[in-house]
Write a structure and sequence with these properties.
Elements lengths: L4 H23 L9 H4 L8 E9 L5 E11 L10 H7 L16 H7 L2 H4 L3 H13 L4 H10 L1 H10 L15
Antiparallel strand pairs: 1-2
Helix pairs in contact: 4-7, 7-8
């Protein structure tokens, strides 16, 4: 049985309109604000913006955590939710609010971020800390190389670059 042209055209228009209504949700990719708290940190949106866990103080001493889109761009990375393996290998924590270069002052952290398991397999986390180190005037590959040879010297060089130690950071080591 053949359908009149107008019926076929109407059916086609309805089918296309349903497809177009579904298209934005199907192609949206990672939207930071839609991510649960336990996947937010170290995720990258479909627009290559890094996701950031933020906290808001509520009444009664309660804290609310929300995933937000930051202005930081992850070059060449988009639609990325970091794997648990990389989180463990690199020594980072998803529950941290914000990210700072202070962790680069901790020898144990530098050892993990510079480990082959992290540095060779987790480009998103390495890129993030590469940029944080650069902001402190430090080239992460040089810090990793120095850390492999003499971790105490690596910390001294990092501190001498002008990086300010965070609270509880070890004092600089003279060499």
């Amino acid at each position: 049985m053949a359908f009149p042209a107008s019926s076929s055209a109407t059916a086609l228009v309805l089918l296309l309109s349903q497809f177009l209504l579904l298209l934005p949700s199907a192609t949206a990719g990672v939207i930071c604000e839609d991510l649960p708290q336990d996947l937010c940190a170290f995720a990258v949106s479909s627009a290559s913006k890094r996701c950031l866990l933020e906290n808001t103080q509520l009444g009664g001493g309660r804290t609310d955590y929300q995933c937000r889109t930051s202005e930081a761009v992850a070059e060449g990375i988009s639609d990325w939710i970091e794997t648990d393996e990389c989180v463990r290998a690199c020594g980072v924590a998803r529950g941290n609010v914000g990210i700072s270069s202070d962790s680069l002052l901790e020898p144990d952290f530098v050892q993990k971020i510079c480990s082959a398991e992290c540095y060779s397999n987790c480009p998103n986390i390495v890129d993030l800390y590469f940029n944080l180190a650069s902001g402190e005037g430090v080239f992460l590959p040089d810090l990793c190389e120095a850390q492999r040879g003499d971790p105490r010297r690596a910390m001294a060089e990092f501190l001498s670059s002008g990086a300010a130690p965070g609270p509880g950071a070890p004092p600089p080591v003279s060499t």
